[in-house]
Design a protein that fits this description.
This protein has 170 residues and is α+β, with helices and mostly antiparallel strands. It is 29% helix and 21% strand.
Length: 170
């Protein structure tokens, strides 16, 4: 179905650069080849992100013309999605900690100023479920990484701390 409203205007603009600006294969400097743009809806508003994409320009290099995107892009949103990770975590918290329905979550997001339709809330909730599912099915890797710790604090980068931190104890 076609969008009935226009895409919301960004209230914040951010430029993301690659941390490592040298090619990992040959060590030569990678130049900014082109810019990509993403508009991401977060709890704090709509963010227009400019991604400075780099490529190795040395023809002898095995990574010649391979795309190197800014590392921080993944901290904002899932690939190909317009809603930020903070919003996904917030929706999951409302659903599974406060046991709210999709219409109630939609209302809460609208009250926070997030321009979102009810169907998109369901889609965001599906993304949350998928992320939780992936983290739970890879129990061996998680146990190895966190085995020596007594507690784990669940957090997502850039998440708005509107809830007290939750901990999981052994």
């Amino acid at each position: 179905m076609a969008r009935k409203t226009s895409v919301p205007k960004a209230n914040q603009k951010i430029i993301l650069n690659c941390i490592d600006q040298n090619c990992t294969s040959c060590g030569q400097k990678m130049w900014n080849d082109y810019d990509n743009f993403r508009t991401i809806r977060t709890l704090s508003g709509v963010v227009r992100i400019t991604l400075k994409v780099r490529r190795c320009a040395h023809k002898e290099c095995e990574s010649y013309h391979q795309v190197y995107r800014p590392e921080e892009e993944g901290a904002w949103a899932l690939p190909g999605h317009e809603f930020g990770l903070d919003l996904i975590a917030y929706v999951g918290g409302l659903r599974y900690q406060e046991h709210r329905s999709v219409p109630q979550i939609h209302k809460a997001l609208r009250e926070k100023g997030v321009n979102i339709c009810q169907r998109s809330v369901s889609n965001v909730l599906d993304r949350y479920d998928e992320l939780v599912s992936v983290s739970l099915t890879d129990r061996n890797r998680i146990t190895k990484l966190l085995g020596s710790q007594e507690q784990v604090i669940l957090a997502i980068d850039r998440a708005n701390a509107s809830y007290p931190a939750k901990t999981l104890s052994r």
